[in-house]
Design brief:
With about 425 residues, the chain is of the alpha/beta class. Helices cover about 25% and strands about 25% of the residues. The longest helix is centred in the first third of the chain and has 32 residues.
Length: about 425
Amino acid sequence: MRFLAPVTCCKAAKELFQNSLCGREHDYSDDKAQKMWERRKRMKGKMRYHKGLAALLALTLSFPIVPEIQTRAAEESETEHTTLEELETLETEDTTWEALEDFETDDLAEEPMETEPETQEPETEETTEQQTIPGTWTHTGDGWHYLDGTDIRAYMDGDIIRLCGTGDFPDVDYWKLYERPWHSSSAQHLIIDSSITSIGAYAFYKCPNIKYITIATSTFINNKNAFEGIDISPVFRIVDEKVQTRMYGTIPYTSLDSIQAFAQSSAMGACYILDDNRKATAFQESTNPTIGNVYSAKNTKAPWNKLSKNANGRKATPICKLSPLTPDPTLKVSAQRLYPGTACYEAYAAFIEDYTFATTFNIMVEKEEQPVKETADELDYILTIPKAYRRAGRSFRLLAIGDGEVYIYDDLDSYDDRMTFRTKKPTTAYALVYK
């Protein structure tokens, strides 16, 4: 049976009885009008009847066990019908509107005014089989913990936490962090198997003893807060495995991208150790400014053990400037090559057309140390193309997101190592695409 909202029910009643409710005079000059008026009076009576019945039903459902005083009153009652005053009292209670949601206005018009009360069926207690609550852990002993409803399990032994199994490790409820097996663990070493495809939000949030993390390039970090609040200056050992790819339209986003995005925004003084020098260099230079404290595992001196003396990275290279054709000495232009949020990829994918995605930038234009959202006139800007995307005859374009809109800027020059674009709204996020 369809449920009506209380307001809808009131409106239906008004439409059915508006003349009588307004107290208007009626013209009974013809038989048709007379019949209609009599029918409305009957319907009004039926409406009042069903309001009372519905109210009683609602009260019964609200209190499955009838108080003793009500039972005794029913047995000793000398009248078989509820008085008009009692009905009016019931009609004013909120439970009446809840019960009225069970009735269609058409049913009220067609059902006879006098009906035998329906026989009330014996109340039964509903029982359901116990179901597994997602996100709960089962501890079977010997250090093993199993995440119910998944193939994820954790092994905890002394100073080591090992997350293994297959599939995505889901987001953790912020209000139930204490349910994580390692929530109060003193273990310093965390090993995440390469078969774990992703790490969800708050997975190891505020676990201050975790300092050494092993994670594969095949594992997505879905949210940077997964490792917030661990030990100061943690060490991430990033093991090379086949990367996984998520597609946003035609734009690929890899598990390695997600780790680099985490590293670019990390403010906890972490360092990152990759398999060799080549991989370490590529990882560090994936952003501008470069990622800090990146090393090769083949470095026998283990510089990561003395970061205060061996820190590296965090170098910014100028990659954007005003064109000399439209100079403005009052403006300061800077740009960063950074990973955006995944929502940006979805927006870019909708406007990329037949171009191929390359990378993303944030461009900032300032005047007197304040960001400039829009300039008085269109100005030309020159953006340096990263070496990895330079090809003879390649055509570039910028997709810009700002104020809820996407702007498309075509290359105004013919150089392979840079592109020139013109805009009045320079301070925003951009995607570089080519064909």
